[in-house]
Amino acid sequence: MAGLDKNTPTPTSITVHQASRVLEIGFSDGASFRIPFELMRVCSPSAEVQGHGPGQEVLQTGKREVLVTALEPIGNYAVRPVFSDGHDSGLFSWDYLYRLGAEQDRFWADYQARLAAAGLDRDAPMAGKAGPGCASGH
């Protein structure tokens, strides 16, 4: 399972910043990231967002104002954020959070490209149809 690799840096600090809507996370290798809640939500590793296979991804929209209302630890390898829109099924492993933070420019660009291809913008209401989701690499 992702997040269990012994070489994956582990978090040394995690802070939920509601006002700026970012998760600040520091890792044991000295890296530190500020990951926007919106990016976490649209790139959630959950099956609800990623689907169960290629082509089943659901493009997320209307998540700019989403908040993280709770952050629950999952063993020693992940956290489960509870988002203000009710989404709570994504387990964010340490390696996924590290990658999301380190490569957030690429994740944002991929997301923007998928929105453009679908003729949508990030503030469009959720349509609930299948289409390209966030390129999580899972």
Q: What's the architecture in CATH terms? A: 2-Layer Sandwich
Number of helices: 4
The total of beta strands comes to: 6
CATH class: Alpha Beta
Largest beta sheet: what is the strand line-up? 1-2-3
Rg estimate, integer Å: 14 Å
CATH topology: NE0471 N-terminal domain-like
Q: Into which percent range does the helicity of residues fall?
A: 10-25%
Global outline: globular
Instruction: Give the oligomer, counting copies of the same chain as homo and different chains as hetero.
Output: single chain
- Which regions have little confidence, pLDDT < 50, spanning 5+ residues? none
Largest pleated sheet:
3 strands, antiparallel
* Derived structural class: alpha+beta
- Overall number of domains: 1
How far the N terminus sits from the C terminus, by CA atoms, comes to 11 Å
Percent range for β-strand residues: 15-25%
| Mean pLDDT over the residues | 88
H/E topology pattern: EEEHHEEEHH
